[in-house]
Amino acid sequence: MNAKTAEEPEGPAAGSDLRAAGLEALRAVLPGVFPEGDIDLRDGQLGEELVEIGLTTVFGSLWARKGLGFRDRSLVTLGILIALGAESELKTHVRIALTNGLTEDEIAEVIYHSAGYAGYPRATAARTAAREALKG
């Protein structure tokens, strides 16, 4: 892995705290975004628990697993988000992919490749989202 790659957690053991594992994985792929220690991700608005659910189920149960490194998980996640047309999430995951060691050229290749499987409109929308993510 190159110096730009996020440090990967060991993965949750059976019975471990998925929230803690999720925070560890989230901090690794988005360095400097979340302060250390326990944090409250709820905002007091409709659906406020959605981020907490994602923290435990997506980052704690999936991203913290052994078996695939963060770089590989980023490649898979980009392809899935492109196929789903989930441009908002794609913007975040483009930044995560860069942290995990993907280059802009590799992200472009994922977008090109997705055109053949998810369709040209999805690839075009993904290109727009990725460009926006890379600006900010």
List the helices and strands and how they pair.
Elements: H1 18-29, H2 50-63, H3 70-84, H4 87-99, H5 104-117, H6 120-135
Helix pairs in contact: 1-2, 3-4, 3-5, 4-6, 5-6
Tell me about this structure:
The protein is mainly alpha-helical and 136 residues long. It is built from 6 helices and no strands. Helix 1 (18-29) crosses helix 2, helix 3 packs across helix 5 and helix 4 packs across helix 6 (120-135). The longest helix has 16 residues, at 120-135. It is globular and about 40 Å long. The two termini are 25 Å apart.
**Major sheet:** none
Number of strands: 0
Residue fraction in strands: under 5%
The CATH homologous superfamily name of the largest domain equals AhpD-like
- Spell out the helices and strands N to C: HHHHHH
Low-confidence stretches: none
User: What is the count of distinct domains?
Assistant: 2
CATH architectural name of the largest domain: Up-down Bundle
SS summary, helix count: 6
Label the structural class.
mainly alpha
Task: Give a brief description.
The chain has 136 residues and is an all-alpha fold. The chain has six helices and no strands.
